[in-house]
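Board notes (copied after class):
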Amino acid sequence: MIGFEQFLRDKKKMVEERMITYLHQIDAPATLKDAMLYSISAGGKRLRPILALAVMESFQKESLPVLDAACAIEFVHTYSLIHDDLPSMDDDDYRRGKLTSHKVFGEAQAILAGDALLTESFSFITENEHLSSDQKVRIVSILSRAAGASGMVGGQVEDLEGENRELTLNELESIHEKKTGKMLECACLLGGVAANASLVELEALQLYARHVGIAFQIQDDILDITGNQDELGKPIGSDVANMKTTYPKILGLEGAKQEMENHINLALEHLGKINRDTGILASIADYIIKRNH
């Protein structure tokens, strides 16, 4: 198997090339396509699509069947970031060191670019020639649930309602399990469906991703205190400035680090229930706690 860093680079390149090719081919107004391409090309770890591809790798399957579904997850994730940055939401001027979509194209065009990425994600899945009709239906169902009212959007609502008040640890975990975790679970489940995983394997993948998602958010909160602004692409201390409840605020910095390690250990415990070559997935869990951006 290729090295982990090379795997990340190769899959990231594969995902980005496929997304850009797809967007260039759609029939849409030039301004809309430019806004969509701007946000899709803004960089990022591409963790969600890479997770889906890593599941295929674990099951010794080719990437091609799940590639478009993996890209669809990144479309949904990018739409959510565009909308998160809007003045009515987080009101951010920069994302990954670049001006946010609404600062470049205006608020109305940014909203529409996000809307278009969300809806195009489902065409990305249904037009895939490498999946069966049953797999497409299951994948669309999983993605829509993960992204919708009981998943990412519901978590965003709880996050907004939690501003300017002290949250409990359980409330904070509920927000991030929905806002971040559901889309990571979705990525692993999509990979599992494309790889024809058993129900037992799908459950283990989902629980692995759930704990990875919480660990990911805890590390985000830690980096908001200890990170480097140039590496993060956003101001340090923004959570404190916005009076948000974070894991370090509740548990202290060292307590948050321990909680993150606890969730990674639980993720690896569930991963161990899958009798496959899950080395890449284990490496992704390790990467979560060692990343600096």
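Comment from the instructor: The longest strand covers residues 94-95. The CA atoms of residues 47 and 184 lie 8 Å apart.
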